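This part of the workshop introduces the protein records we will be handling. The question running through the whole workshop is how a given chain folds. To make this concrete, we reproduce a full record directly below:
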Amino acid sequence: MNKEIQMVGLLPESKQKIESGVVVLTAVREKVVYEDGNRTDKTDGFSVRGIIIDGELAGKEISIKVDSANNINVGNKAKLKIEDSKVYARSQRNTEFATVELSLTGSIALLSEKGGN
């Protein structure tokens, strides 16, 4: 298992590593709600992906769920604030193989607009 996670969530020292790094945002999209396997018109926040560009975790891709994506655009530099984390197993249909996934929920503080320093 990855040394950055434990059974109940993110290790405190790993949370600090993520929160202290600068992230370049690479995708922002609404999280659609599904009921009984069917897509609804409801949304539940936004999924924001990015690449950590400094510190010990530089080069790692990260995804976080946020309530609001006001003024958040691809290319922005930001810092993340993690409020909750969960570890779960994810598998493909008709396989016995599963991968460990980390789900993060929190907020984003923009450091610069796209193309800024």
Remarks:
- Strands lie at 5-6, 9-10, 23-35, 38-52, 61-66, 77-91, 98-112.
- The longest helix spans residues 12-20.
